[in-house]
Amino acid sequence: xxxxxxxxxxxxxxxxxxxxxxxxxxxxxxxxxxxxxxxxxxxxxxxxxxxxxxxxxxxxxxxxxxxxxxxxxxxxxxxxxxxxxxxxxxxxxxxxxxxxxxxxxxxxxxxxxxxxxxxxxxxxxxxxxxxxxxxxxxxxxxxxxxxxxxxxxxxxxxxxxxxxxxxxxxxxxxxxxxxxxxxxxxxxx
Length: 189
Ligand code: GAR
What we know:
This protein is an alpha/beta fold. Helices cover 38% and strands 23% of the residues. It has a 7-stranded mixed sheet, sandwiched between helices.
């Protein structure tokens, strides 16, 4: 079974969807950069090891990512799935995991990259937004797209209601796409 890690900074609902799905990989590690993030408590229920790594406790990004890399190597992690990890991946991890880091973003990229994609979509008045799953490169949400699904924006939508409908899509699309990547791509190596 392929060993994978999930990186999360927040509530961890996507991490949970991945962990609970039946996939051709086993989530051996949750990496979290926020010592107070709810995902840490959630991971205890999954019996998954959590590596809390606070960037503030390292002199620079390279040292921070080096500490994560060491842990990933110790656990023989082959794939990284970012699930609400609110930090740009730097060269240390990008080089070690070339084309093996995947991210989920709550918009139809390239629209509304960066922070608060849902707020950006509402402010722009678009009628359709959605979810994108893409490979991670050095840019902000710029890597090549693997899967997308549209979500209609309703006249009555608030940030909360649109976020809920987008998340419902995310929780299905992310596991499905991981399954696709691992069977179609990884299986061919
Ligand atoms: C998700 O909606 C994800 O798409 C978004 O953060 C949320 C995390 O929720 N990611 C980004 O905005 C990345 N730029 P979760 O912690 O409940 O999975």
